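pipeline: protein-struct stage 2 | run 1193 | Pilus assembly protein CpaE
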Amino acid sequence: MLGVQVARQLKAAGLAWKPQLGDRFAIPDRDLDDELFVLSNMLIQVHDRPEGRIIAFNGTTEWALDDVDLGEALWLPREDQLRELLGGTFRELRREPGGHLVRVELLGQEHTFTAAHAEEAYAAALLHVLAAAF
């Protein structure tokens, strides 16, 4: 799973979150940094309000947290979501000794990114693609 630091980098690079069921997210800077939340039908849902989108926590399972603005939440994309976000630039994921390698092609040039976990290698590749887009 991606950490908060990498998720912050992705958000700062322009990655937009379109919340879907099953998405993982964190709520940093509210003494909840180590907590992982998942959007679900019953407990945690996204609602459109006149003042903006919110994430609502239903029931008593999430302490006294009623809702937070979507902008306060930090999306932690899964491996499949990161791969999908790479789109047509993605060429290969390969397991190597000590980690994973992701290869992308961007503007006719190949780039490789390695990390201990596949999600981290995908995230590094996506950061590169996002930086090239701006």
